[in-house]
Amino acid sequence: MAGVAAMASINQNMHTDALPDFRNLGVILRVVLIVLILAGLAALCQSPSWDLLFNRFLQVVAPVQPVLVLSLVVLWALEPWLRQLDYVAGIAVVLLLELIVVSIIYRVGQEVFQGSLYDGLERYWLFTAVTTGLIVYYFHLRNRALSPALTEARLQALQARIRPHFLFNSLNAVLSLIREEPKRAETALEDLADLFRVLMADNRKLSTLDQEVELTRQYLDLEKLRLGERLRVDWHIENMPGEAVIPPLVLQPLVENAVYHGVEPSAGTGVVSINAYKARDEVHLVLRNPYRKNGSHHSGNKMALGNIRERLALHFDAEASLRTTVTEDAYQVHIVMPYRAQA
Amino acid sequence: MTKHALRVVVADDEAPARSRILDLLEDCAASLALQVVGEAANGRDLLELLQSTPADVVLLDIRMPEMDGIEAAQHIQKLAEPPAVIFTTAYDTYALKAFELHAVDYLVKPIRLRRLYDALSRVRSITPLSLDVLQQIAPEPRRHLSVQERGRVLLVPVDKILYMRAELKYVTIRTAEHEHLLEESLVRLEQEFRDRFVRIHRSCLVARDYVDRFERSGEEGGEGGWVVLLRGLDERLPVSRRQQHVIKDFGRLNGV
């Protein structure tokens, strides 16, 4: 149950109608952007000419800014409590909080500027209520766009697909073992079954880094069966946060890519290095494989990376990133995700 | 035709895949006269093997490092007595579509005993692969060109070639050390290797990577044409008037 709660807090998109996660960087940025756009519109309406637009904008933003900052701080602080409310109550509370915040700022403003501000607290209330309403509506629409049905469809479409190439080659390798080494054939089929269980499972559930590493090991055992000495894997995971909660099938498809593009095209030994560690409050996954310029199959690679990138975005919004670096003879993928421990 | 046992070669980069086929061949041998004469882990080894060990049929994996199966099949055709080729693949939609289109024999892995048996039984009667078809099927340019010299087939890595020049029936290909004669059409070569080579003359393609500089040739003051100089080579190759735009494309003019 605790795991479910941890998941929920990571995954704001999984709820039909819920308040946004006010501690999520993406949410915060969106709120700031909407408020600034509204202020910009207000300035545009008020300004008599283009030249005065910027001045006017600054005048509009001046009182908005402190309200915005204080609101974000308050919402950030109350986020765990807000999360427990149901949606409608949550909206009411947020609205109330906003009205209180604007009242406080208004009072302080009156003190400091001795009445040089526009008058009428009610007008500020109205502006605040409308803005809050628009933001809540925006997140409602956004939630709908990413609603479980749609998100599920998208996640399912994004379901990490194992290469048919790998499946059939592995089955072929297992067949070759059955006569000579039935024990090894058994293990291989068990690994294959585990791998497919995860592949066909519900990918919306989050997994842990430990589980992902285990899955990747099983996958690599199968590849070693076929590739033998040609495949070498360097694990650097002594300091990895195994309990970290991450989307499923992020590591394995990357390793599969590395094997397909970095190891298989060469007759010699190819080394895939896998690095997992925690720095500050982020989980880092770094994967490196040999790279040859004139190799083909680039489109497949881009698809797999695009898939993972999109799933990271669905799960973590702007807080996760995936970067690739190509050097003379190596290809590197670096993923950064926010660290959330399994509760 | 003598009815000796069918001589089979297995080419696959994965050891378990080879051993699987060998198991199946053993099963086939119960009712079909056959004999495995060799194994290879990539196209180059295969060609080497076939030079010394004649075979009737090669079971040839498509996806192999260094040299893939389709390229290997092209070079094999240059042997004095090329064996029949049966391609094998685990999964390759592109190649399979092409095979269907051109009626090329193939088996999908995991291979069924029955299928292998059928393919081997009719192997003596199938029409040999044509180079034309193989070139059409090939998804990417070859990495080597193969030339026949002193009764052997020799592989010349494409990235070692400085220029190719059409001469009567043949194309001369020039590496830093050697010159070889190739029985292919320059137009065809130009199409296949357009990423690597550029035409500087009706009868000559030069490797972009080796272009050192362009120079004015001939008499001072005369309307002399241009020549290109390649790294690692003393020859001055003329650039024809029609191809002079190439010089601009390179954008590094020396000696102007």
Describe the model.
The complex is a heterodimer of chains A (343) and B (256). By secondary structure, chain A is α+β, with helices and mostly antiparallel strands. Chain A is built from eleven helices and seven strands. A five-stranded mixed beta sheet of chain A has the order 2-4-5-7-6, covered by helices on one side. Chain A has a two-stranded antiparallel ribbon with strand order 1-3. In chain A, helix 7 (164-180) runs antiparallel to helix 8 (182-200), helix 7 packs across helix 9 and helix 10 runs antiparallel to helix 11 (298-316). Residues 1-15 of chain A have low confidence and may be disordered. The model of chain B has no long low-confidence stretch (mean pLDDT 88). In chain B, strand 9 and strand 10 (179-182) form a beta hairpin. In chain B, the strands form four sheets. Chain B has a five-stranded parallel beta sheet, sandwiched between helices. The longest helix of chain B is centred in the N-terminal third of the chain and has 15 residues, at 15-29. The termini of chain B are far apart. Chain B contains eight helices and 15 strands. In chain B, helix 2 packs parallel to helix 3 and helix 3 runs antiparallel to helix 6. Chain B has 256 residues and is an alpha/beta fold. Chain A binds chain B through residues 163-165, 167-169, 171-173, 175-177, 179-180, 225-228, 264-267, 296, and chain B through 13-17, 19-20, 23, 41-42, 63, 65-66, 90-92, 108-111, 139-140.
Task: Give the tags.
heterodimer, A: 343 residues, alpha+beta, 5-stranded mixed β-sheet, two-stranded antiparallel sheet, disordered N terminus, B: 256 residues, 5-stranded antiparallel β-sheet, 8 helices
What is the secondary structure topology, with strand pairs?
The complex is a heterodimer of chains A (343) and B (256).
Chain A lengths: L1 H9 L14 H22 L6 H32 L2 H27 L7 H25 L2 H11 L5 H17 L1 H19 L6 E2 H19 L3 E6 L8 E2 L4 H13 L6 E10 L2 E9 L7 H19 L4 E6 L3 E9 L5
Parallel strand pairs in A: 2-4
Antiparallel strand pairs in A: 1-3, 4-5, 5-7, 6-7
Chain B lengths: L5 E6 L3 H15 L4 E7 L2 H10 L4 E5 L7 H8 L7 E6 L3 H9 L4 E3 L4 H9 L9 H7 L6 E6 L2 E6 L3 E7 L2 E6 L3 E4 L3 H7 L4 E5 L2 E4 L3 E6 L9 E5 L5 E4 L5 H6 L6
Helix pairs in contact in B: 2-3, 3-6
